[in-house]
Amino acid sequence: xxxxxxxxxxxxxxxxxxxxxxxxxxxxxxxxxxxxxxxxxxxxxxxxxxxxxxxxxxxxxxxxxxxxxxxxxxxxxxxxxxxxxxxxxxxxxxxxxxxxxxxxxxxxxxxxxxxxxxxxxxxxxxxxxxxxxxxxxxxxxxxxxxxxxxxxxxxxxxxxxxxxxxxxxxxxxxxxxxxxxxxxxxxxxxxxxxxxxxxxxxxxxxxxxxxxxxxxxxxxxxxxx
Length: 225
Hints:
The chain is an alpha/beta fold. It has helices at about 50-55, 60-65, 75-80, 145-150, 170-180, 200-210; strands at about 1-5, 10-15, 20, 45, 70, 85-90, 95, 100-105, 125-130, 130-135, 155-160, 185-190, 215, 220-225. The longest helix has 11 residues, at about 170-180.
């Protein structure tokens, strides 16, 4: 499986010829100004919640690629009003697709859409595909519901927010690894704004001291997981 980071909480997973794009926010991000969204390919777009730093490029990329958009009911309804037609509205629960399964899981945050309308509940996802199980927490604080994931899954990787202020910080993400029983983490939702800037060296050292892996790929970088 390949992971390509596009900044903030936007990334692409590639597995078995399928491409999964998460939380498309690229063009407004000055750190991602070298990314050409017209070159991005996707078969599926998964959206954790309606905030602008997660949906800014959703409509453009959905129309460009024809990807199936998987999102909370209210976010899907907003996207439909913007002319997106290939949609799978969800709520908390598990659904089978041709590539495997998606479970929408609890996140403690807020959610509204760019026009100010109600965005439903924020969420995270557990994606099962190509023999891998990946947890993307979305925007969330540390919460006890994460412990359920250790009962339900054997996670290969967890993609966790680490910037603090709006979400978990590095220390909370470390504690989350114990809740979810997953020692391999890819950090997201950091450095985009002053409020969520991190000390990368310190973050990596904290994970290393706990014998855990924290990956922080550069924007535009692709790694194999």
